[in-house]
UniProtKB/TrEMBL annotation:
Chain spans, region Disordered: 1-21
Source organism, top-level taxon: Eukaryota
Enzyme class of the recorded protein, top EC level: isomerase
MF term (GO), any: peptidyl-prolyl cis-trans isomerase activity
UniProt-listed InterPro entries: Cyclophilin-like_dom_sf (IPR029000), Cyclophilin-type_PPIase_CS (IPR020892), Cyclophilin-type_PPIase_dom (IPR002130), Cyclophilin_A-like (IPR044666), PDZ_sf (IPR036034)
All residue ranges annotated as the PPIase cyclophilin-type domain in the record: 153-331
Biological process terms in GO annotation: protein folding
Keyword annotations: Isomerase, Rotamase
Alphabetical list of PROSITE patterns matching this protein: CSA_PPIASE_1, CSA_PPIASE_2
Record protein name field: peptidylprolyl isomerase
Pfam families: Pro_isomerase (PF00160)
EC number in record: 5.2.1.8
Presence of the UniProt keyword Isomerase in the record: yes
C-alpha cells in the first residue's frame, strides 16, 4: 500500500489470498437469460425460480439513446421477418438485447445478430409476453431491432510500443467518459509510467510524472472541473483534487489485459490514474471480499505484449530506471 503522502495512485499490493467467490449484484439477478431455442417455448431463468413474466418489459432508453448496462443505440435499425417456433437465440428479457444467436435457428436465417435490441414485434413495442404469443402462432411476423454503437477504442502510443484498448462506455459511462475527456485534452501526453511491478500491473496517469524523477509522481491528478458523460449526456464533476464519483456498476474482473481505476481506497478518490493488469488480480475487484475497490473500464485488444514488456523493465522502488513515456493517447468514438 502506498503511504498517505502518495495517495492518488494507491492500489493494494499483491495478495496471497485465494480468489473470492463470484457474487451477483441485484442488477445481475435481474438479467435472467431467456432461451428461445426449444420447441418454440421461452424459458425464463431456472425452472425452479419462476418470475412474474408480465414485469419483463423492455427497458426504455434515455433521451441520449443510452440503455444502462447495455450501451447506446445508434441511428440504425434492422427489420426482419421471423418464423414462429424455435428462434434459436438468447435474449435479455428486460432490455430485449440479443445476447447470443445459435447456428441453424430461425433468427440466424433471418440475419439477426448478437448485440441487436428488440424494439418492436409485429408493430408493437417489444414485450416478452407479446413475443411468446407470436412464437406460438402460425404466421411469420416482423421484428425491428436497434443497433448498439461500438465502444470507443483508445490507442496508447508509448515509448516501448503501441497498446490498443476498448473503453467500456457501455458499462461504466462516467469512468469511461472521464478517461476519454482527459485523453482528448492531451492530459496524458508526455506522462511517464511511475509504478511498474512485474507479474502484477503497470500504473500511469499522474501529471507529476511528466518529470519521471519527480518525488511527487503518483500523487497528482487533474484539476477540478466538469466533463460530459458521453453515454447519458449529463454533466459530470471532478472535485476534491480532480476526483470523480465511484462507479461500481459492472462486475468486470481485474484480469490480465484490463484497464482499471487507481484510487486511495477511500470513496470517490479516483481521478486520472489507472493501471493495466498483467496478471489476474481478482482481489482488486470492487465486488470482491477484500478492501480493494478498483472498477475496470477497459481491456487491451491489441498490443498486450507491450504492456508485459513495460512491466518487465528494470526498476528501483517500482519506478522504471529507464523512463517509459506515454507519447499520446488517441481515442476514436
Amino acid at each position: 500500500m502506498w503511504l498517505r503522502m502518495q495517495p492518488r495512485g494507491a492500489i493494494p499490493q499483491r495478495s496471497r489470498s485465494s480468489h473470492p467467490p463470484v457474487r451477483l449484484s441485484s442488477f445481475s439477478f435481474a438479467i435472467v437469460a431467456v432461451w428461445l431455442a426449444l420447441d418454440g417455448h421461452v424459458f425464463v431463468g431456472n425452472p425452479r425460480c419462476q418470475r412474474d413474466e408480465r414485469k419483463l418489459v423492455a427497458s426504455s432508453a434515455a433521451p441520449s439513446g443510452y440503455i444502462p448496462g447495455v450501451g447506446s443505440l445508434s441511428d440504425e435499425t434492422r427489420t426482419v421477418s421471423l418464423q414462429p417456433g424455435s428462434l434459436g437465440m438468447e435474449v435479455d428479457p428486460e432490455s430485449g438485447l440479443v445476447k447470443q444467436v445459435f447456428e441453424d435457428g430461425a433468427a440466424e436465417r433471418a440475419g439477426v445478430q448478437a448485440g441487436w435490441i428488440f424494439q418492436t414485434v409485429s408493430g408493437k413495442p417489444y414485450e416478452l409476453l407479446t413475443l411468446k404469443a407470436l412464437l406460438r402462432g402460425e404466421e411469420p411476423f416482423e421484428a425491428t431491432f436497434g443497433v448498439l454503437r461500438p465502444n470507443p477504442v483508445a490507442v496508447l502510443d508509448t515509448s516501448l510500443g503501441v497498446i490498443e484498448a476498448e473503453i467500456f462506455l457501455d458499462r461504466v459511462p462516467r469512468t469511461a467518459s472521464n478517461f476519454i475527456d482527459l485523453a482528448q485534452s492531451g492530459f496524458y501526453d508526455g506522462v511517464h509510467f511511475h509504478r511498474v511491478i512485474p507479474n502484477f500491473m503497470i500504473q500511469f496517469g499522474c501529471p507529476n510524472a511528466k518529470d519521471p524523477s519527480s518525488p511527487y509522481a503518483g500523487t497528482g491528478g487533474p484539476s477540478d472541473g466538469s466533463f460530459q458523460n458521453l453515454a447519458t449526456g449529463i454533466t459530470e464533476k471532478r472535485f476534491r483534487g480532480g476526483n470523480i464519483k465511484d462507479e461500481f456498476l459492472s462486475e468486470d474482473s481485474n484480469v490480465k489485459g484490463t484497464l482499471s481505476m487507481a484510487n486511495t481506497g477511500q470513496p470517490d478518490s479516483g481521478g486520472s490514474q489507472f493501471f493495466i493488469n498483467v496478471r489476474d488480480n481478482t482481489f482488486l475487484d470492487w465486488f470482491s471480499r477484500g478492501d480493494a475497490r478498483h472498477p475496470v473500464f477497459g481491456k487491451v485488444i491489441k498490443g498486450y505484449d507491450v504492456a508485459v514488456k513495460i512491466s518487465k523493465v528494470y526498476t528501483q522502488n517500482d519506478r522504471p530506471v529507464e523512463p517509459v513515456m506515454m507519447k499520446s493517447v488517441i481515442v476514436t468514438t
